[in-house]
Amino acid sequence: MAPLLEAKGISKFFGAITALHDVNFHVEHGEVLGVVGDNGAGKSTLMKILSGLFVPSEGDLLFEDRPVKFSSPKDARKLGIEMVYQDFALAGNMPIYENIYLGREPGTRFGPLTIVDHPKARRMAADHLDRLHIHVKSVDQNTEDLSGGQRQAVAIARATAFQAKLVIMDEPTAALAVKEVGKVLELIKSLREHGVAVIIISHRMDDIFYCCDRVMALYQGTNFAESPLPATNRNEVIGWIMGHKGHTTGLAHDRLQG
Ligand SMILES: Nc1ncnc2c1ncn2[C@@H]1O[C@H](COP(=O)(O)OP(=O)(O)OP(=O)(O)O)[C@@H](O)[C@H]1O
Ligand SMILES: [Mg+2]
């Protein structure tokens, strides 16, 4: 089967800055892919291209083997590609259920107007959260009052409410407490069980080695290395982030693990 999403020869220039240079990328149906790299390696830029927020300066995107061009996140969303941003994941001061359906509420359309069916939206939101094992007091709770982990979970729920095929998460655990990190990682595993592909950017080796099927490293805007997870180890992946290639000895691995 063709990859779910593929990118060929992607470059992105911001004025004189080359954020990405000739990057090739693919993610398979239902795969959890970890993307690693140092600060400024181009991870977020690549994901913003895959989710339609940035247009690449060069290169091509293929969705299920068909060439596609995204001029906005709306175009990517139509194909089932959703991105969860770390910091501005949710609109504050709004109930959970409205956040989940923001702009796509169930209701009756009258020309440009939609009369939102609030009871139905509440019910659908509660069912969806249940399916993902996300526990909140009530879907009427204001998202501003949620913990960081709950907020991240609701953002993921929103990204998966509309038959997503691919959910891209940029550092979903960076700002979370240990207990909340575990919940987000469990959520990623449950998405995979539902056949949804996930790309997770993370600096935390625990995240990568807990839930990924494959890991790829970018280095200074280029492809550096990639491997199925069982064929690599933390020490090697940490090496890739720093721009070192080749297998490391068990001794060095032990030393790094403390
Ligand atoms: N909108 C922009 N305008 C100009 N330069 C940008 C823009 N976005 C990213 N860059 C530059 O592109 C390069 C890659 O940035 P990017 O945010 O993709 O890195 P990253 O791998 O996500 O890093 P981090 O781990 O710090 O999030 C950096 O040099 C950055 O300064
Ligand atoms: Mg980034």
What does this 3D model show about the protein?
The chain has a domain at 5-90 and 164-256: P-loop containing nucleotide triphosphate hydrolases (Rossmann fold), CATH 3.40.50.300. Helix content is 33%, strand content 27%. It has nine helices and twelve strands. It has helices spanning 43-50, 73-78, 96-101, 118-131, 148-160, 178-193, 205-211, 234-241, 250-256, and strands at 5-14, 17-27, 32-36, 58-63, 66-68, 81-84, 107-110, 113-116, 166-170, 197-201, 214-219, 222-228. Strands 6-9-10-3-11-12 form a six-stranded mixed beta sheet, sandwiched between helices. A four-stranded antiparallel beta sheet has the order 2-1-4-5, covered by helices on one side. α6 links the parallel β9 (166-170) and β10. α5 runs parallel beside α6 (178-193). The protein starts with a strand and ends with a helix. Residues 249-258 have low confidence and may be disordered. Adenosine-5'-triphosphate (ATP) binds next to β2 and α1. Magnesium ion (MG) binds next to α1.
- Element string (H = helix, E = strand): EEEHEEHEHEEHHEHEHEEHH
Distance between the termini: 42 Å
* CATH-defined topology of the domain at 5-90 and 164-256: Rossmann fold
Low-confidence stretches: 249-258
Count of helical stretches: 9
Principal-axes shape call:
globular
Rounded average pLDDT: 89
Q: What kind of sheet is the major sheet?
A: 6 strands, mixed
